[in-house]
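@channel anyone free to eyeball this complex?
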Amino acid sequence: MVEAITWHGDHLELLDQRVLPFETTYIQCRSAQETADAIRNMVVRGAPAIGVTAAYGLVLALQQDPTPAAFEAACKVLAASRPTAINLFDAIDNTTSRLGNLADLQDPAAEAEHIAVAYHQDDLAKNKAIGRHGAGFLAGARSVLTHCNTGSLATSGWGTALGIIRQLHEEQRLTRVYADETRPFLQGARLTVWECQQDGLPVTLVTDGMGGHLMNNSMVDCVIVGADRIAANGDAANKIGTCMLAMAARYHNIPFIVAAPTTTIAPKTLTGKDIPIEERPHDEVSHVRGNPITAPDTAVFNPAFDVTPAELITAIVTEDGVFHPPYRFN
Amino acid sequence: MVEAITWHGDHLELLDQRVLPFETTYIQCRSAQETADAIRNMVVRGAPAIGVTAAYGLVLALQQDPTPAAFEAACKVLAASRPTAINLFDAIDNTTSRLGNLADLQDPAAEAEHIAVAYHQDDLAKNKAIGRHGAGFLAGARSVLTHCNTGSLATSGWGTALGIIRQLHEEQRLTRVYADETRPFLQGARLTVWECQQDGLPVTLVTDGMGGHLMNNSMVDCVIVGADRIAANGDAANKIGTCMLAMAARYHNIPFIVAAPTTTIAPKTLTGKDIPIEERPHDEVSHVRGNPITAPDTAVFNPAFDVTPAELITAIVTEDGVFHPPYRFN
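replying in thread with the prediction:
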């Protein structure tokens, strides 16, 4: 399985997901600032992967300057890199709370490194548990529709939504996964398809508007997606294009599943209305791979995420098990 | 307003919609075969525009060879160019039935020309009526979401769904039209945005997955789309990506309007299940403007249309007025 995030002791190596599957290029980060830039520019993306990356970014910060002031500045730089994914803040909180008072530590960077490596391994274990819980719940699932990329590239490995799909494949129950191309950034067309091909999953690429037609014709029997932040009431922010799949699944009465580690749940975010939705640059919509698809100076709206109302989510699958509405995460 | 279809007496000139808005190029058709090729290759598209184009294609056929055998062959070539749009068959039926027995006519080509020009003018008049009926019905509409291109490029001029939106704009009621880019062929990004800009309508481009987010945030108060074929029970085939908008609109309880001339209604097509759905070449999905967006040899599904169940359609607006479910077109 492909490794999107590799720690080398004095630097972090990230598989550049912006150019996959056309080029396999790695970016090296040697500071918190370089790590934050890589997150903002989407070298690495996917809520759990962003969390793990940020944890290593803090190690790099402490290696450069272990003073509390420098460390606090690094935390702020990393926290500002993407606003929606809660895992980013979870990773920063995890490191800062476990480190405690920096002045009390003999080697803060080494401590942070232990914390980051454990956080990384822990995310992988959570993915595997999510896969088992989800595949167990979806007794009838054979053909699955998914959106964006939630696989080994978006996590520490294995995946969340794609982790469940991988588990179905391992149990020889998966007949096909339909991957939404996921405009504007095309994570489905570029990353999910490639990941599935690498690992032998039967995958078919569709455009984001085809989900309704697949459901009308009984070509999929469930939808499985990831999440970037889940509010206390179960409202779930995920890649733009997700909530309409949930509305279509409800009309067709097929399961709509959100798969995410518990680190994605934000109990202090009471409802979906409290989730900040990042708006990204307009040329992501007006251009595809650098080429314009519309007239010059076209007005564009480019929210990166949407919120699926909790009542439309059949189940939220975490490493702790399968939850159903009404959700109450405290 | 832009002219997509211009008749020159001995040839048909079509604005090449495949290269808009980047190039303004015209294609000349001098035979039924060239006309059918232009329809198949989507030089011209949009159900009403395809019908008008086919009517002129029959004139060209009769100019070349007015024998019944040659004319019948030309009808078949044109009918085979696109399978879903019923207007194509309506235009061919209209010409053949009005012509009657070719042997009885002094100048079949001249007769066919009168019929085609009248068919063309009639479609424009129907568009204007659709616009008035639709705008009258949508008393509260200010901000509209639309899909694909249903404007002057897709019709004889003015438009069907975009005709209603133009009428709202003329009445100074339109605050904004959100145009889905409409993958895979990008008719929204390339054509609808350009048409709106030409005529001063306030337009914002979004990707096909953003409709749910727009509705979640009360940014649109209705959805207006066209149709390629409407069954007797009101089920409506339209560009892929349409039916999911209807499912989202139902969830949000906002009007979902289908606008089409009565020539789009096919009483002999009993329900949506009887509508043949064209599957188009896979490179339309795997590539954008000639550039790959996914790994080589990726499996692709590319249905060109989907069917919106009649029960999800708040109103079907034709030149004859506004219809509501349950629909019964005989």
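from a first look: Chain B touches chain A through 59 residues (CB under 8 Å).
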